[in-house]
Amino acid sequence: MSVISKDPALLHDGDEPDNRAISEIVELQMGPSHPATHGTIKFNLKLDGETVIACDTEVGYLHRGFEKMCEQGTWTQTIPYTDRLNYASPLINNFLFCEAAERLAGVTVPERCSYIRTILSEMSRVADHLTCLGMSATEVGAISVGFYMVEAREILYNLSQHITGARVTVSYGRIGGLTRDLPDDFEERMRAAIAHTRTVMGDAEKLLERNRIFIQRMAGVGIISKEDTISYGITGPLLRATGVRRDLRKDEPYMMYDRVEFNVPVGTKGDNWDRFSVRFEEVIESLKIIEQLLGQIEPGPVKVDDPTIYMPDKAKVYNSIEGLMAQFKIVIEGVRIPAGEIYFAGEAANGELGFFLVSDGSGRPYRVRVRPPCFYAMGALAQMLVGGGIADIISTFGMINMIGGECDR
Amino acid sequence: MQGFIDSLLATTTTGLSRELAYLGGMIGFGALVVFGFILPMAGITSWLERRVWAKIQSRVGPNRVGPGGFLQWLADGLKNLLKEDVIPEAADPTLFRLAPYIVVAGFVAAFVAIPFAGSLIIADLNIGILYISAVTSLVVVGILMAGWSSNNRWSMLGGIRSASQIISYEIPAGLSVFPVVLLSGTLSMQGIIENQGWAPVDWHMFHSPFTLAAFLMSYIALLAEGNRTPFDLPEAESELVAGFATEYSGMRSLLFFLAEWGNLYVIGAIMATLFMGGWQVPAFTDNVVLLTVAQFGMFFAKTYFWVFVAMWIRATLPRVRVDQLMSLCWKYMVPIAMVNMFGTALVMVVIPEGSRLMSYALCGLMLFGLVRFGRRVNYHLKRSRRYDTVGAIMPV
Amino acid sequence: MSDYIPVFFTLVFAAVIVAVMVSLNRILGPRTEANAIKDAVFECGNEPTGTAWGVRFAIKFYLVALLFIVFDVEVVFMYPWAVIFRELGWFGFVEMMVFMGILVVGYMYAWRKGALEWR
Q1: Closest among A175, A158, A173 to A357, alpha carbons compared
Q2: Which residue of B has its CA nearest to A185?
Q3: How far apart are CA B71 and CA B65, in angstroms?
C-alpha cells in the first residue's frame, strides 16, 4: 500500500489528504466460529475502518494427522481416509490415490475400470464446483442460486449413493480396480442428472451473469497476478483464472482423459469474477466429458485378475483354499507393493492433488504425503485480501474453495 | 377516527364528554393495533417470508407447526422465550437492555400515523409523514446503542455500518417524499390519500414522470432504511456474524427481528399511502362498516404487495458492498431525488391543473411494462423445475 | 395537541411489549451460574482482542454524519415550502431554486473533494 502521512501538515499542495491516515488500526479475529470461515480457518485481521491492511491466515483447525494415520494401516485401509480429504469430491481423492499406488505397484487396471473412474471423477468435479459456486453466491447474499445448485448436487450425491452406497464416505476405489461395477440403470440416471444440472446452470446464469450487483461484488476483487500465482504454487481454477492454460487432464493425461475432447477455460485478470466464470465453464465442460465417456464405455471387468493385488470373488474365498489364503493375505498383510517411491498428481476440483507414496515392500505405506491444492492458495490469501474490505474476504475466500479436510489433513 | 366515534356516540345515550370519548377511542384503537395487529402481523410476515423464499428456492419451508406451518412464528416466539438471556460481562448492561426498547418503540410509534382505512387511524397527525420518518429514525439510535453497548467489535462494526447506511438513505427517502407533499399540499397521511383517487390514473405516482421516478427512488431508499436485501449489510450474516445483534440472545434478539418485519409493513404502508392511493376504493355502498372493511382490505393488499416484492428481491439479489452502497446513495439517488422534486415542482407551475393525458400515458406505460414482465415471469415459470424434482429424478 | 396523546400511549404500549417479553424470558428461560467463557463477548470463538470501546473509528463515518446533517437540515427547511407550494407558484419555485442552487454548489464541492468516496 501507499505511504500514508500521519500528519496533514506534511502534505504537499495538491495532495489529497488520505482519510485513512487519521483513523486507528483495529485488530479483529475472524474465524474459526464465523459463518464464512467454515469453522476451519482463522484470519487475524488488521483493519482500518473496514479496509484490510494486514491479514494473517491460520490454518490447521481440522488437522487430523492424515499422513500419520495412513502409515498405521494397510494400503487398502488408507482408502477411506482419502474420502475425508476433499469431502466435496471424495471420489477424485479415492481414484487418484489408487492410481498412484497402482503406478507404484506396476499394475494396469482394465479399461472399463478406468472409464468408470474418469466418469465418476468428472461427476465429483461437477458436485464440487456446484458446492463452491452455490455457496459463494449464497455468501454474498444470492441465496436462491445456492439452493438451486445444492439441489443439482443432491441429485449427484443420490447417484453416488446409488453407486457406492454412500454420499460422502464412498471408499469406492480399490488398488487394482473398484469395489463393484456400476448399477444397470447408471447411464439413464447419469443422463437425467446431466440434464438437470444443465437446467440449474442455465437458471444460475440467468440470475448471476448479468446481475450488476453480483458482478460488482466479484469483478476486480481478490486479484493476484499470473507470476505470483505460479510462484505460490497455486494450481487449478485459481491458476487458470489468471490466464495460464494448465490442466493436468490435458497436459499429462491419466485415466481416460486422452480419449475425450474438452476445452480448458481460462480467465484474464485473476479476480473473483474470472474464478467464478472458470469454475462455471468447467462444470459445462465436465458434463460434456461425461457424455462422451458414456458413449465410449463398454462392458468388461472392473478389477485386475491378480489375487495378490485384488481380493478374489467371495465364491472363491468360501469354496477354495487358494481364494481363502489370498483374501487372508490381503486383509491381514495388505497389498504388497514393491519398495520404491512415486509422486503422482491429477487434476482435482481445486487443482493439482498429488500423492507422494513411499513403500518399503511391506503391505503398509511407509510414507504418504498429500499435496493438497488449496493449502497453497491459503498462503497467497493474505495478498489477495489486503486492500479490500471485510465484504471482499467473503467473496475471495468463497471462490478459493478452501476445504478444511484437504487443507489441514 | 373522530367521525367514527361521533357515529358511535350517536347510538349510545351515555353522557360521556366528547373529548374524553375521542381520547379513549384513540387509545383503545392504539392498544388494539399494537397488541392485536402489529405483533401477529410481524410474526405472520416472518412465516410468509420463509414460505415465499421456499417457493422461490425450490424447497418446502416451515410446514410442521399448524396448517402449512402457519403457527411457526408462535413456536419460534415460544422457543426464544425459553432461551437463556445472556448479557456479556464486558457489555454496558443499561444500554444493552435499553436498545430493544428503542428499536421496538421506533417502529411501533410509526403505526400511530399509518392509516388503515378512511376512518381507521390512531391519530391523523397533521405532520404525518414527517412524524413517520422522524420516529423510524429512532431505530438507528437503538441499533447503534445495541452495537456499542455489546462491547464486541463485530457488533460495533454492524452498528456503525447500520448508522451510516440509515442516515445516508434518509436523504433520498426524505427528498422522494417531496413530490407527494408538493402535490397534496399537506403532510397528513389521510390528507395525502384523500388527494388521490381510487383509480390508478389519480395516483400520485402517475402524475408526471418525475413522480414515477420518485416512487421508485422511495422504495429503494426505504428498503435501505429498513435494512433489507440488497442493503442488509448491518446484519450481513456471512460477513459480520449477526451484526449489531451478535451478543443478543433469547427474546431480546427476537425483538430486533420483530422490528425488522414490522418495518417491512411500515415500508409497504408508506408506499401505498404516498404513491398508490392508500385505502381509496370506489364508493360502492353507503354502509360505513362495509366501506371501512373494503378500504382496509385495499390498503392491506397494496401494503402486502410491497412486502411481497421486498421478499422477492431478498430471494433474488446479492447484497451490495458498503462502498457501493454509499456511492449509490450519494452519487445517484440524492441527485435523482433532487431532480424529481424540482421536476414535479416545475410541472406543477407550468400546468397547475395537472395533465390527465400524461397520467393516462404513464399508466399505460406501466401497464405495458407489467404485462411484459408478467409474460416473462410466466415463460420462465413454465420452463422452470418443479420443487420435487430431486425425488422424481433420482430416488435413492 | 390531543393528537399527540396517543403517540405517548403507543410508546408506552411498545415498552410494555418489550418489558413483558423480556421478563417472561427471564422467568421461563434457564439460568446458569456465571461463567467466564459464557460471559465473554463473541469474537469467533477466540479470546477477545480487547474492548471495542477504546477503538477510534474511521473518519469516513464522521464525514457521512456531517453530510447527513447538512442535507437533512435542508430537507427540514423544505417541508413548509412544499406544503404551501401551490399558493406560491412561480415565486416559490424560483425561490427554492436559488436555495437549492447554493446547496448544490456545496454538494459539488463535497463531491470534488472526494467526500463522497468511500475508502
Answers
A1: A175
A2: B394
A3: 5
pLDDT of amino acid A20: 47
Exposure on the CB side of residue B112, measured as CA atoms within 13 A: 33
Q: Which of A227, A283, A249, A236 is nearest to A400 (CA)?
A: A236
Instruction: Say if residue A9 is in the same domain as residue A124.
Output: no
Q: How many CB pairs under 8 A join B and C?
A: 209
Report yes or no on A134 lying in a domain: yes
pLDDT digits (tens, 9 = 90+) for B22-44: 777 777 777 777 788 888 888 88
Both A130 and A196 in one domain: the answer is: yes
> If you average pLDDT over every residue of chain A, what do you get?
85
Tell me which DSSP letter residue B338 carries.
H
Architecture of domain C57-119: Up-down Bundle (1.20)
Q: CA-CA distance, B326 to B164, in Å (whole number)?
A: 9
Compute, in degrees rounded to 10, the torsion defined by CA atoms B90, B93, B94, B99: 90
Q: How close B24 gets to chain A, by Cα (Å)?
A: 47
Q: What is the pTM of this model?
A: 0.84
* Contact residues, chain B, for A213 at CB < 8 Å: 230, 317-320, 324
Q: How confident is the model over A233-273, as pLDDT tens digits? A: 898 898 999 988 888 888 888 888 888 888 889 888 888 89
Task: Count interface pairs A-B at CB distance under 8 A.
Answer: 105
Q: Does A69 map to a domain? A: no
For chain B, the C-alpha Rg in angstroms (whole number) is 22
Q: Give the domain extent around A353.
A: 77-106+109-303+338-407
Interface test with C, best of B37, B39, B101 (most C CBs within 10 A): B101
Residue A89 lies in a domain: yes
Q: Are residues A159 and A85 in the same domain?
A: yes
List, for residues A131-160, the tens digit of each pLDDT value.
999 888 888 888 888 888 888 888 888 888
* A183 upstream amide cis, omega within 30 of 0: no
| B255–C38 CB contact, under 8 Å | no
Cβ-count burial of A19 within 10 angstroms (0-12 exposed, 13-18 middle, 19+ buried)?
Answer: buried
Q: Classify residue A179: in a domain, yes or no.
A: yes
**HSE of A391 in the Cβ direction (CA atoms, 13 Å)?**
27
- pLDDT (0 to 100) of residue A209: 81
Whether the pLDDT of residue B392 is over 70: the answer is: no
Residues A198 and A246 reside in one and the same domain: yes
Q: Please check the confidence at residue B260 and state whether its pLDDT lies above 60.
A: yes
Nearest residue, CB atoms, C6 vs list B26, B181, B327: B26
Whole-number pLDDT of residue A17: 47
Domain spans in chain C, listed from the N-terminal domain onward: 57-119
Q: How far is B306 from chain A (nearest CA, A)?
A: 20
Write the CATH number for A273.
1.10.645.10
Cα distance between residue B274 and residue B206, in whole Å: 12
Distance in Å, alpha carbon of A54 to nearest chain B alpha carbon: 17
Q: How many residues make up chain B in this entry? A: 396
Q: What is the pLDDT of residues B313-365, one digit of tens each?
A: 888 888 888 888 888 888 888 889 989 888 888 888 888 777 888 888 888 99
The sign of the torsion formed by the CA atoms of A178, A184, A189, A191 equals positive
Provide the chain B residues 330-359 that lie in CB contact (below 8 A) with chain C. 330-331, 334, 338, 342, 345-346, 348-349, 352
- The total of structural domains in chain A comes to 2
**Mean pLDDT, residues B370-385:** 80
Neighbour count for residue A368 (Cβ, 10 Å): 24
ipTM of the complex: 0.84
